[in-house]
TrEMBL record:
In the C-terminal section; belongs to the homoserine dehydrogenase family. Pfam families: AA_kinase, ACT_9, Homoserine_dh, NAD_binding_3. Residues 366-444 form the ACT domain. This is Bifunctional aspartate kinase/homoserine dehydrogenase I. Signal peptide: none annotated. Its cofactor is a metal cation. It comes from the Bacteria. The keyword DNA repair does not apply. It comes from Hymenobacter saemangeumensis. GO terms for molecular function: kinase activity. Bifunctional aspartate kinase and homoserine dehydrogenase that catalyzes the first and the third steps toward the synthesis of lysine, methionine and threonine from aspartate. It catalyses: L-homoserine + NADP(+) = L-aspartate 4-semialdehyde + NADPH + H(+); L-aspartate + ATP = 4-phospho-L-aspartate + ADP.
């Protein structure tokens, strides 16, 4: 049984040593606290009658420890050798206590000093183990001494001169593995405080889960990074002897834990886990003077090795123009000096550049032995990162394909590791983070719809939709866990205001995976946040038509940002609400078809009005009913003037490939100009006064058995919108309620048009269309 120190002891001993070296007498107090803690542990562990020997032993060892620290205090210096000696007390004390307790339990137990077992070199602080000597010492010791249970301090060893050395933080696991290997143990169990190796660092990924079985190679790859469940060197000794290694949780022994073995059974998951390492610096040695000349890499690595700088990742492009290595950020400055000195002549001659050092980086890596037989793994990895705006600075993959490493900005690690985890672990749900602007007619319906569908999405699609921020023009509610959609209105009412720029910055700063801006306002203000968000790979879903019908240059800029940054910019509901009009048009264009012309009824409001108005009640009253039914724009004059239809015609023409501005659309209005003087109430009042005008329009059409329809027409680069009287044989005659309809004539649909028809306005259907766009953006 190998024992590590009581929690926090090693750190406390280091701190005590450092204060002593800094002439700070606080070390005495610290040692006293540690002593009390160990004495209390002894009293708790052993029966009163048999405590004395252990208490005496502890006191004498603390007296020794005190003398060592007094020496450090007197000298004002803490050497690596003395620090190793200081640190060793943690394990020496705890293991002697455990040995005493084991004997008390009636076990045939004995304590062995690992300094007599583990032989190392004299590199104090992180000594290297002499495996052969250790093997011999362990066997010789156990042959010479007899006990059924040996209790041994972990973490420490001794050099050939008998000086105490340490094996690196977490080194108790390593001690156990060395002993298991020397003894040819049947199994090695590591009892720790987590239930095994996890698919990702659980501090970063809440859905990370324990890995039941894993190969030595995979465990080695995972143990280097992230949540260090296992001290990395631990695996080597047991792997060489094929000794199975269990990682179990002391606090949940019933949990399965992780079995590390030669060949775990194949599972559906080709990726076993995802590792991450922060505080990385990328060193780039570049220059045309390197191309085709052997020896540059040897000199680069030798310069780093001389400084004892550990290289974490290596990559070189086939052009040989640059070599790139990843090192610990703490080693960056020393690396720069060492490499620039090594290549001083070539740098002076301009053959290579001084070493370029970039800090603030991190590695996210996929680990899995089965990846080698599966194409598409790296594609999926890069796709998942790319879709979330995570820029990959460097890539490394050996031909064994056990590990695919990507170097990214440290600020992106949490997002990156989560999207990669979502992409590779089926049982994991995908988290979608919404930032919603607008909670009016459509916005409110959307939030209620999300509330109703949340459970379905989680259960059936494994998608967790969260509204992280919700803003109206006066309030903004934010919740990192996602707002409770059952009470969004109360949360919004109680929330403070937030400006649009701050709202935009909030989305960028949160840097959450699968982020979507949802614009369900009608204002021109909000569209200014689209470009900065798309440039951060945040998807934009808008039923607000302002952006797509603004200046062509702005519309085209947003479309190109969406393409460049892999961020969907979706606005299906801009035309016909949830009817699949824009998606169908995009399919036509994508497949090389060309729209020759289209004819459409695109205003739910006007269709509602002309379907309900027959002179039996005032025209203005029917418009009010349309507004009450939620089909009009917040300002109904946009509908009645034909502007809303013109915007839709413009968006359709642009999506068909036309470069067109709003001023190119001919709007043939049918309302007297007087209706547009004043505010919305004045508008209604004036329509009432103009009732005769509307009655005349209706009567003329009805007299010929025709219906009034406000029609948008586009043909060969020209578009117009206006009121028409349609006969019963016209495709756009037979429309109910707030229906929209469009007929496309294209190179493929020459005689019989492609017709799309159905409810084309209203809060519910529009909300459903926005919801569909959100899903399209993230799935
Ligand atoms: N109705 C329909 O059938 C269809 C509608 N649409 C589009 O849906 C959009 C929304 O329409 P509708 O829901 O009726 O409009 P509403 O007027 O009912 O709601 C608009 C919402 O936007 C909020 N808002 C306004 N300015 C800002 C701002 N600067 N920042 C944050 N929030 C803001 C408003 O807040 P506050 O209450 O504080 O002012 C309100 O919550 C429109 O663009 C419309 O064209 C698209 C297709 C069909
Ligand atoms: N006000 C619009 C709503 C959808 O865009 C309409 O009437 O069609």
């Amino acid at each position: 049984m190998v024992v590590s120190a009581l929690g926090g002891t090693t750190d406390a001993l280091i701190a005590a040593g450092r204060s002593a070296a800094a002439s700070n007498e606080a070390y005495r107090e610290a040692l006293h606290g540690l002593e009390q803690r160990h004495l209390a542990a002894a009293q708790e562990l052993l029966p009163t009658a048999s405590q004395q020997a252990s208490l005496d032993l502890l006191r004498s060892q603390f007296a020794e420890l005190q003398r060592v620290c007094d020496g450090v205090f007197a000298l004002g210096e803490l050497s690596a050798r003395t620090l190793d000696k200081l640190m060793s007390y943690g394990e020496l004390l705890s293991s002697q206590l455990v040995a005493a307790a084991a004997k008390q339990q009636g076990l045939d137990a004995a304590w062995a000093d690992s300094r007599q077992l583990i032989r190392t070199n004299s590199r104090f602080g992180n000594a290297e183990v002499d495996m052969a000597a250790t093997d011999l010492q362990v066997k010789a010791y156990l042959n010479a001494h007899k006990a059924r249970l040996w209790v041994v301090p972990g973490f420490i060893g001794a050099d050939a001169q008998g000086n105490t050395t340490t094996l690196g933080r977490g080194g108790s696991d390593y001690t156990a593995a060395l002993l298991a290997a020397a003894l040819g143990a049947e199994v090695l169990e590591i009892w720790t405080d987590v239930s095994g190796m996890m698919t990702a660092d659980p501090r970063l990924v809440s859905s990370a889960r324990p890995i039941a079985r894993i190969s030595y190679q995979e465990a080695m790859e995972l143990s280097h990074f992230g949540a260090k469940v296992l001290y990395p060197p631990t695996i080597q000794p047991v792997m060489q002897r094929g000794i199975p290694l269990w990682i179990k949780n002391t606090f949940a022994p019933q949990d399965h834990g992780t079995l590390v073995e030669v060949a775990p059974p194949r599972t559906a998951a080709v990726v076993r886990g995802i590792s991450s390492i922060s505080s990385l610096a990328l060193l780039s040695l570049e220059g045309s003077g390197m191309v085709g000349i052997p020896g540059f890499s040897r000199r680069l690595f030798a310069a780093l090795a001389r400084e004892r700088i550990n290289v974490i990742l290596i990559t070189q492009s086939s052009s040989e123009h640059s070599i790139c290595v990843g090192v610990n950020e703490a080693d960056a400055a020393r690396s720069q000096d060492a490499v620039d000195e090594e290549f001083a002549t070539e740098i002076a001659a301009g053959r290579i550049e001084p070493l370029r050092v970039e800090t603030g980086l991190a590695i996210v890596a996929l680990v899995g032995e089965n990846m080698k037989s599966h194409p598409g793994i790296s594609g999926k990895l890069f796709g998942a990162l790319g879709h979330n705006g995570v820029n990959i600075r460097a890539i490394a993959q050996g031909s064994s394909e056990k590990n695919i490493s990507t170097v990214i900005q440290a600020a992106d690690v949490r997002k990156a590791i989560n999207v990669v985890h979502e992409a590779f672990f089926e049982a994991t749900y995908k988290q979608v983070n919404l930032f919603v602007l607008g909670a009016g007619n459509v916005g409110g319906k959307l939030l209620d719809l999300l509330a109703r569908q949340q459970a379905y999405l989680l259960d059936k699609l494994r998608v967790q939709v969260r509204v992280v921020a919700l803003a109206s023009s006066r309030h903004c509610a934010v919740s990192d866990e996602g707002l409770d959609l059952g009470s969004w209105a109360a949360a919004l009412d109680a929330a403070p205001p937030l400006g649009l720029d701050e709202f935009t910055q909030l989305i960028i700063d949160k840097n959450l995976r699968n982020s979507v801006l949802v614009d369900v306002t009608a204002t021109p203000d909000t569209v200014r946040c689209y470009a900065p968000l798309l440039a951060k790979s945040v998807a934009v879903v808008a039923c607000n038509k302002v952006a797509a019908s603004s200046d062509y240059a702005f519309y085209a800029h947003l479309k190109s940002l969406a393409q460049e940054f892999n961020a969907p910019f979706l606005f299906e509901t801009n035309v016909g609400a949830a009817l699949p009009i824009l998606n169908t048009l995009q399919d036509l264009v994508r497949t090389g078809d060309r729209v020759q012309r289209f004819e459409a009824v695109l205003s739910g409001t006007l269709n509602f009005v002309f379907n309900h108005y027959d002179g039996s009640q005032p025209f203005a009253e029917v418009v009010r009913q349309a507004q009450a039914a939620g089909v009009t724009e917040p300002d109904p004059r946009l509908d009645l003037s034909g502007t809303d239809v013109a915007r839709k015609a413009l968006i359709l023409a642009r999506e068909a490939g036309e470069v067109m501005e709003m001023s190119d659309i001919e709007i043939q209005g049918f309302l007297p100009a007087s209706c547009f003087e004043g505010d919305v109430e004045a508008f209604y009042a004036q329509m009432l006064r103009e009732e005769a005008h509307f009655r005349a329009l209706y009567d003329q059409a009805a007299a010929q058995g025709k219906k009034l329809r406000f029609v948008a027409q586009y043909a060969e680069g020209r578009a117009k919108v206006g009121l028409q009287q349609l006969a019963p044989d016209h495709n756009l005659y037979d429309l109910r309620g707030k229906d929209n309809a469009i007929q496309f004539y294209t190179d493929c649909y020459v005689e019989q048009p492609l017709v799309i028809k159905g409810a084309g306005a209203g809060g519910e259907v529009t909300a459903a269309g926005v919801f569909a766009d959100i899903m399209r953006a993230v799935l």
